[in-house]
Design brief:
Largest sheet: none
Number of strands: 0
Strand content: under 5%
Number of helices: 13
Helix content: over 70%
Length: 301
């Protein structure tokens, strides 16, 4: 969605760098070096500090709120019935008894193989020649159910997609929380497990990106004010080399600002869950320059 606007990002990079070169060249090398140091300090401090602050916020306030939301959702969700409905939606043509599925989950044998045997017995023949194909489909059902649970808990859509992806990539880990999901006494352990293992990471990402943007903006105001105070307001005649040197220093200054732009785009993309017109992953992948900044942010923040 909105991939036709991929060029928009590269234009932003070019524009930011050129503007920084222009103003840095105009003010000279000394001013450019001083403000460049301010940029580096603001970005460096924001990167290092944002991690700890975001972990504290996401690990306490947000996590506790998510546990409460998940408890409420799980209270109205019957996991064995959801799994039964999913299996019936496949092209096997079987009618599944959710009580039998729940009985399997209450047992101590492999859930995957026991459900495979049960479905085969219902059909009277193998529904899949390769059991792994059935297991993959079953795990996809788990992923969809997890996505629905997180989404129904009024969480960010990015969090629900990340939770589903985690189930797909680590189905064995999900099997360990199934007994908690079918527990009729309490849903608190299941809610805490989902919050810790499936939604904590995406919320860490969101809070860190937001914290970085806010911190960088505040630190830049302070740093530029100090730099302005040090340099003074007076006009200083400059030679051509001073202007050229300032323009060249404007290039890394512009790249630092482009990095901040990439963080902001990443933040808008995860908040909009790839559905916004400009801020979406597919458009970024088509860019020539901006994708490198964006991918660095995605991999490291």
């Amino acid at each position: 969605m909105g991939t036709q606007f991929w060029w928009f990002y590269d234009i932003i990079v070019a524009a930011v760098v050129l503007v920084c070169m222009f103003f840095s060249g105009r003010k000279g090398a000394v001013n450019a070096v001083t403000t460049f140091v301010a940029y580096i300090l603001a970005a460096g401090i924001a990167v290092s500090v944002s991690s700890g602050i975001s972990s504290a916020i996401a690990g306490n306030t947000i996590r506790d709120s998510n546990v409460r939301k998940l408890e409420k959702t799980l209270g109205g969700t019957k996991f064995s019935s959801e799994v039964s409905s999913y299996i019936e939606s496949l092209d096997y043509g079987v009618k599944v008894d959710h009580k039998k599925i729940e009985q399997i989950y209450n047992g101590k044998k492999s859930f995957d193989s026991e459900i495979f045997k049960y479905v085969n017995n219902k059909k009277g023949k193998k529904v899949e020649e390769d059991p792994q194909k059935f297991y993959d489909k079953l795990h996809e059902g788990y992923a969809q159910i997890m996505k629905k649970i997180v989404s129904d808990s009024s969480m960010n859509k990015y969090a629900s997609e990340c939770a589903a992806k985690e189930v797909r990539e680590h189905p064995d880990k999900f099997n360990n929380i199934i007994p908690l999901l079918i527990d009729k006494e309490t849903k608190t352990p299941a809610a805490k497990k989902i919050a810790d293992d499936y939604t904590q990471k995406p919320y860490n990402v969101i809070t860190r990106l937001l914290t970085f943007v806010v911190l960088f903006a505040l630190l830049m105001i302070v740093a530029l004010y100090l730099a302005h105070t040090m340099l003074g307001n007076g006009y200083h005649a400059m030679t051509l080399p001073a202007h050229v040197g300032g323009a060249l220093i404007g290039i890394p200054k512009g790249l630092i600002l482009c990095f901040v732009v990439a963080v902001a785009v990443r933040l808008f993309a995860v908040l909009g869950s790839d559905e916004m017109l400009f801020f979406n992953f597919k458009a970024v992948d088509q860019t020539y320059i901006f994708k490198y900044l964006y991918n660095y942010v995605a991999d490291n923040m």
